[in-house]
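A favour, since you know our structure tokens better than I do. Just paste the record in under my message, thanks.
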Amino acid sequence: MAPRHLERHMVQRIGWLRAAVLGANDGIVSTASLLVGVAAAAQGRSEILLAGVAGLVAGAFSMAAGEYVSVSSQSDTERADLARERAELASQPAFEREELANLYVARGLELGLARQVADQLMAKDALGAHARDELGISDITTARPIQAAVASALTFSAGAALPLLAALLAPTNLIVAVVSAAAIAFLALLGAIGARAGGAGIGKAVVRVTFWGALALAATAGVGALFGVAA
């Protein structure tokens, strides 16, 4: 018996990976920025931590709701396209067969072979063949609203907990510096993990995520300092 050839492609992870990285990144950046902004305004530790916890809770629910609504809209569009395709297959199967064959011709098959391929695929699963090759909808890329919402909420909470822990452990007069440094380190680690999981280059991902995180921290620190001076 010939050995089985198993392949694992990174695209299979795209659904949960995007939501997870986005959630964790937002959790770190938004919560760390909030903590730094409040601390830069010369507030006490209790006020800083309260702001951080409030940001964690609000952000987690906001991420979950946003992902659910966004991915649900994508899912609704997919279902509408599939319903339209199902109706067209029922009303004009010959046209749909030619349409599928022409897609294969455009990819390099001769017309006769393309028609044979279209016939065989449609005999097994006509809607599946058109969904995959005409609409670009497959089991790998199909929208999963609940999965995206849960992944975003959990990873946001995990990301937000990291700068909160740094603020809790840091001396009050060093909260801005400690939280900022910790957030940059956490973002770099997240960028590396996300790139590794997705099979992408680590260096570019780390630079990208730390640059925007540092920019957000600097902006909120400046705002907090400005309001602290004004007060």
Observations:
- The CA atoms of residues 115 and 227 lie 70 Å apart.
- Residues 11-230 form one domain.
- The chain has seven helices and no strands.
- The helical segments are 14-40, 45-91, 93-106, 111-135, 145-169, 175-198, 202-230.
